[in-house]
Design a protein that fits this description.
Layout (H helix, E strand, L loop, with lengths): L1 H4 L1 H11 L13 H40 L12 H9 L8 H16 L3 H11 L4 H11 L7 H8 L6 H10 L6 H6 L2 E3 L5 E3 L7 H32 L2 H12 L6 H12 L4 H9 L14 H24 L5 H8 L4 H12 L1 H16 L3 H6 L7 H10 L4 H25 L9
Antiparallel strand pairs: 1-2
Helix pairs in contact: 4-5, 5-7, 6-7, 11-12, 11-15, 11-18, 13-15, 15-18, 16-17, 20-21
Keywords: Cell membrane, Membrane, Transmembrane, Transmembrane helix, Transport
Protein name: ABC transporter permease
Subcellular location: Cell membrane
């Protein structure tokens, strides 16, 4: 009995029960190992639950984008079908004039490509660098399919003298390898000269840099306008009683329930010179009948329509943050002698910055990639870089050029995102 009450004996008994120094479960297994197994099973279960969504994202989003971006620097339309000429280019440095071996390789490859019906692919690839050359390849292919006799230089020049153009041979040399940076050069209004140096294209061909600058400038303008319009609306929604606030919120969300195409075409009706807004201004006497404003098919139409469409993306993040701000903070500042403007500037506004950052980021990124609205109401001066990407995808079928433009746009957005993170901090962003 005395041993049972002795504390030293109790400690000795406990130490004996945990002789290896490790806690164990009821069935005698080490507790740490049992916890690790349980956590591992929980992670596997969670992974299996999200696996279908992960596979869906990989198959429908990541893989197609990866393949598309690959086209921006990989195009084997020429190199895969003109192997003999490609070998001659590998064996002879840039600047070497085409000899009879080069003309023989060209004739051999043209005959083989024409027989395999891939001459159009070859011509399309060179046509990206030298416009108008696709017809040269296809017409020559029809001729050489019936047979061509040496000397091949004279035979090919007899078919078309365009084969002697140095620019054509320079383009074929550049295309003789599937890996190329020419599409990125073209995306910044640059090209390669006959000697391989990088030069700026002619002034009348400089369109891409201008479109990039216009895209980011208009996106910034639209972001600022949505902030100026959305901030007071979000503040009103956050301060009104819940019943009235919910009613106004329905009006804010109403555009989401309407087709984007319908909203854009509605602005076309409102903004055109014979449209509703101009009619009202003429009726009020603000402008004369011959002074109707041109508000569509230009940058003005793009800004107005896109501001209306993207405004909810600014209001909702701001509202979600303003709703959580305690109004007693502003009242306390005013009771301590601060003016209404000072209380707003130093107390209220800083607390809305997470919502402002989220709204600005959403609006800006969406505006940078918008396509339908600028295409319908932008005209020639309101087009964005997304419209040029779509044109290369659907009209010219120059997917490599479209991929290069898209890659540069993606890189610019990611750079701005990084700058935002360094200056403001992504942790301060709040979507709701």
């Amino acid at each position: 009995m005395a041993n049972a009450l002795d504390p030293h004996a109790a400690i000795a008994t406990t130490a004996t029960g945990l002789a290896d120094g490790r806690l164990r479960t009821a069935d005698g297994k080490p507790l740490a190992r049992a916890l690790a197994r349980s956590q591992s099973r929980a992670r596997r279960r969670a992974f299996l639950l999200v696996l279908p969504l992960l596979a869906f994202i990989l198959i429908t989003f990541v893989v197609p984008i990866g393949q598309m971006l690959q086209r921006s620097f990989y195009n084997d339309g020429f190199s895969a079908h003109m192997p003999a000429l490609g070998q001659w280019f590998d064996e002879n440095p840039r600047g070497t004039d085409p000899d009879e071996a080069a003309w023989t390789a060209l004739a051999t490859d043209l005959e083989a490509a024409a027989e395999a019906r891939t001459i159009g692919i070859v011509g399309t690839r060179i046509n990206y660098d030298v416009p108008g050359t696709r017809s040269l390849f296809t017409s020559t292919g029809r001729q050489v399919r019936r047979g061509i006799e040496p000397p091949y230089r004279e035979a090919l020049l007899e078919i078309d003298e365009g084969w002697a153009e140095p620019r054509l041979w320079s383009a074929m040399r550049n295309a003789s390898t599937p890996l190329t940076g020419n599409f990125y050069l073209a995306a910044v209004d640059r090209t390669r000269a006959d000697d391989g140096s990088v030069v700026q294209v002619e002034e009348r061909q400089r369109v891409y840099v201008m479109l990039f600058m216009r895209t980011f400038w208009l996106s910034l303008v639209i972001t600022v306008i949505t902030f100026a319009l959305g901030f007071p609306i979000a503040h009103l929604l956050a301060t009104l009683p819940m019943r009235k606030s919910n009613l106004l919120m329905i009006l804010v969300l109403l555009p989401f329930w309407t087709s984007l195409l319908v909203r854009t075409t509605s602005w076309m009706v409102l903004l055109q010179q014979q449209g509703v807004i101009n009619d009202i201004l003429v009726w009020l006497g603000v402008i004369g009948g011959g002074q109707r404003l041109q508000m569509i098919y230009n940058q003005t139409g793009t800004i107005i329509a896109m501001t209306h469409i993207l405004l909810p993306f600014m209001i909702l993040p701001l509202y979600s943050v303003m709703r959580t701000i305690n109004p007693s903070y502003v009242r306390a500042a005013r009771s301590l002698g601060a003016t209404s403007w000072t209380a707003f500037r130093r107390i209220y506004f800083p607390q809305t910055l997470p919502g402002l950052g989220a709204g600005a980021l959403l609006v800006f990124i969406l505006a940078v990639g918008y396509y339908i609205t600028p295409a319908l109401v932008g005209g020639s001066s309101g087009q964005l870089i997304s419209n040029m990407i779509a044109m290369h995808m659907t009209d010219t079928l120059n997917w490599s050029m479209a991929a290069a433009l898209a890659a540069l746009l993606l890189g610019a957005v990611l750079l701005l995102y990084w700058v935002y993170d360094r200056m403001v901090g992504i942790d301060n962003l709040k979507l709701g």
